[in-house]
Amino acid sequence: MTAPRRPLRPLARVFNARAHGENPDDVEAEERAARMRERQRAERRRAAARLWLLAATFVLAFGTVGARMSVLATTDPVEPKAAVQSAQIVAQRADILDRNGAILATNFQTASLYAQPQLMVDRAAAAAGLAAIFSDENETELLKQFSGKRKFLWIKRSLSPEQRQAVHDLGEPGLQFGPREMRLYPNGSLAAHVLGGYGFGREGVHAAEVIGSAGVELTFDAFLRDPANQGQPLELSLDLSVQAAVERVLAGGMRLMNAKGAAAVLMEAETGQIIAMTSLPDFDPNKRPPPPTSGDPSNSPIFNRAAQGVYELGSTFKVFAAAQAIELGLAGPETVIDTKGPMAWGRFRIRDFHDYGPRMTLNEVVVKSSNIGTARIALEIGAERQQAFLETLGFMEPVPVTLPEARRTKPLKPKRWSEISTMTISYGHGLAATPLHLATAYASLVNGGLRVRPSLLKDTPPPTEADRVLSEETSRKIRSMLRQVVQRGTATLANVEGYRVGGKTGTADKPKHTGGYYEDKVIATFVAAFPAHDPEYVLVVSLDEPEDRAGREARRTAGWTAAPVAGEIIRRIAPLMNLRPLPKEDAPEVTSLRTGN
Amino acid sequence: MKTLLYIAASALVVGFAFWAYQVNYATQASVRDLETLRQEIAREREAIGMLRAEWAYLNRPDRLRLLAETYFGTLQLAPMTAVHFADPTEVPFRDAPANTLADSVLQAVLEGTE
Known about the structure:
- The complex is a heterodimer of chains A (597) and B (114).
- Chain A has 18 helices and 18 strands.
- With 597 residues, chain A is an alpha+beta fold.
- The longest helix of chain A has 51 residues, at 24-74.
């Protein structure tokens, strides 16, 4: 709304001017000038306002830029982020669990302790304080190190929380902590040989690599450390409580039988999953001892007798000859074999432990464990077929289990597989293999004839028909023979009420390093399959140089040493594995029942 | 008219700038929140890991065996054997409800009156 326009010649002023005799045009000029001034003023105001606006805009804009620049200049730089990184890994090395989820190995955060002497307030007090906290540190030694030229030195690789607090309480600024991950095996020496051990890789102030040094820790090192797995644990087939019971009973048996070492393998007959594997003497994987530099490495506690120790396994091999003879149709359990001894072959003589008479059935040969009978069967089978059969059972190659120690262990076989080798190997001399080989072969024989591949991982699939090495029928006959060995043969001490143990003993003289065999040192082995009519588990117990001194004369055969230990193990572990006891065998046949978990 | 257009346009620019910056700052705040939460989760997980390790250590078979032996007097825990399994048919049916005190008192009263 503008003011009403003022005319250039207002009538009042024109009349007035005329009345005074003035020129009315002057009025017009005056009015025009006034109007012009008015317009100029308005334009000046507008221009001023625009200038102010412009100035304000510039001041604001540059002020903002300037303020932002000063903010950026005074704050710490931050990387722009397109996205937040996804899930975090908790520990740099995943846990190892048993089949029920119990922890066998885990990682946790501790602190490492290092010193920076140039920051120290009181070096003598620091040295004295540390010596008081750590019994293995020497005060004068520490003080010497602190007084030297070094600006950085490690004191402890890992601390317990208590030690950390104690060091913290010293209040010394020159003693500093760095975060450090540590591997813990909470069960101590349990399953030590399977787990292996750990060591530190590259070390820095802020972290150190934890790397596996043996056992599954080494085999699955890449898996355990792979961040892509997001801390997914490694689940083993071991069962913690069964493993503990096996170790406990085996240790007791080893002491009782005065053996210097012992090994046991417990395997699922159907799948080859290893439920327990132990080797005594053992060690604590939290403090894995270094490999021995002198002496026999097989006497070191880190030596895994179950997977690394190759032994001649004695009469346990007789079952393979019997199984092959039945499978080939050369004999049945009731076929009569000539066992007249001693059997002469070239310059060799084969004898039996006792004289069992001039002839026996094949069944009796296994039950009574006759070397002569087995040798005769082996001769019929022949070297080539025997070799091929043992190969299908896995006796020519290292056991394909995920343990670096087992992968390196090849069985020892004769350079030339002569006829005499054929005969001696048929009763377990001349071919040396690990207890793990034996467990694998027995599992394959008794599970219906399917070759199993031993595994330490949970949920290993069972073998298929493509892995068949033996007919169902032969497997059944072998199971019956194994049962009779325990019922009335060489292994009656392994019988366990309710679990129908079947098995075979094997006693092998230990070879001397100088050649020949020791007279009084044996490896006693017992292989058990239970329940015998439909075996779920195969157990191998092997004692190194056992000697039962309870009787009038020392007894070393497996029937007196390994068999009772195996029986005791089965008595303890079968209930732990929810295996329901079965009624006596003369009662009507029932299938093996298991209670739910 | 033109002025109006200018004013509207600049208001729009200011409005959008305001909105964009707000979103930007909100995102940054969420990222910071997320980071704190993650750190908290990491701390909690570390604590859980530590507790699990401790639990495993306290439940190691050696220790449990020792405890079972130490407290055998009260707990009477022994290794499980085949004898400990029973057939479901061996479990007796639940007894008829036992006589309560009131019942026996009533009984006594009834007997007394006879």
